[in-house]
Amino acid sequence: MWLSVHGVNHSGQHMHPLMSVTTPLSKAQERKAVQYVEDTFMDITSSYKKRSEPSMTKLPTLSSYLLAMQNLLAFILRIPPVDPSTPLRTTFLLRLTGDIMNSVTGYPPDMADFRQLLDFMDDLDQAWVAVLRSQIWDPNKGEGVDLVVPVDLMQTGTTTIRSTPVSQTERTRLRSLLLTGTAGLEEWLAGDYELELEREGLFQEFNDLFASTLAEMGNFAGPPNNPNVMETG
């Protein structure tokens, strides 16, 4: 299922190899990817519900929860943005975003976790920018890069490689998840934590959560319908 190209995230953790970025998943690969993601979501949700019972959960702390979600995010971002696989990446990323925004506040705030939380949210912000631009994910740079299709892979008479843009409905849902989620985080951090965040120089970073994604969506104008494809000679 995987090519022999590996990446490491900003925490130095080993990541899954990259999938072929110019080839959609085969039916068998898609089934395996969906099963893995569904099983992982289920496992994380089950552990999250038991978070107040440390002896019965793998995710007793916010730090452990974020690590589990970071690994799942890395996997999702390796789904190639090439139709018919493109919508799968968007669907799973929306689900992960919803889970994160609803679950973080289920843990007690702890200054020791805030740097990790901000780093994760920044990764998610950059991930959405890449998806909104129909870009592939570069795990070494921690950002999206344009999908480049070499000319020798473009055969005359064959179907052009396409990457379906994020729909208006998905953009509306994403904006709602981010605005509602960040409002919840503000309530979670209200009071003494705001002063501590100011002292640690983190307050502005929380205020700027998902600024890149929201700026990319702009005034809700959807991306062009043309395939996001570039050619190289």
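Second entry:
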Amino acid sequence: MAFTSSAFSAAIALLNPHLLSSNEPVSSSSSSFSTFSSSKQLASSWKPNTNSNPFSVQNAVSLKWRSRVSFFSGLFTKPKDAKTLKDELFDAIAPLDRGAEATPEDQQRVDQIALNLEAVNEIKEPLKSNLLNGKWELLYTTSQSVLQTKRPKFLRPNGKIYQAINLDTLRAQNMETWPFFNQATANLVPINARRVAVKFDYFRIAGVIPIKSPGSGRGQLEITYLDEELRISRGDRGNLFILKMVDPSYRVPL
């Protein structure tokens, strides 16, 4: 419709052996007791400098322990709720001119927040929910057929864009405002409890001149998030649509 994605890292300790050498000459006449005593004193006086060796056993164990603490801290991090995610989403799309000014990085960020919201969606069957009924304002989309960013700005839809849905009649309507005021109406055919096929029947140029659809105006729309103020939908061409409710009482013309 044109409106239409732990293992812990193993801490490997590379133990470099300290090679001890003595430059003192050893007398052949030294007693075995003297040799043993000297060796014992040398051994007792030598201690590995674990503070200066980054690959020491002590540092490796410390690194492994910190990694475990960090991992388990992540397990107990409280996930963001829908309200927090919605606030993030509204902040992210606010400067993007309905998506026309979005960079690929902006699009990726918005899509990730939308995915996070979809993951906490409580309405699993939106086509059975009355919250879907009414008139919605388009806040953001990736659809070029809506944004028309290749046109000069004065030839694009510059006013608000709306989409209305009525479940009892399975009707939908897309409405542009300034400067063209074009409209389109369509019949909805449920595919499952989240997805509908969209079949346009009439287009209205400037909102008054009706033109019957030639039959090629078709698409699909999936409602992936729904509550009383926000709807997220995805089209069959991969486009993202984010809308807010403006009039739950609106009726689509039959």
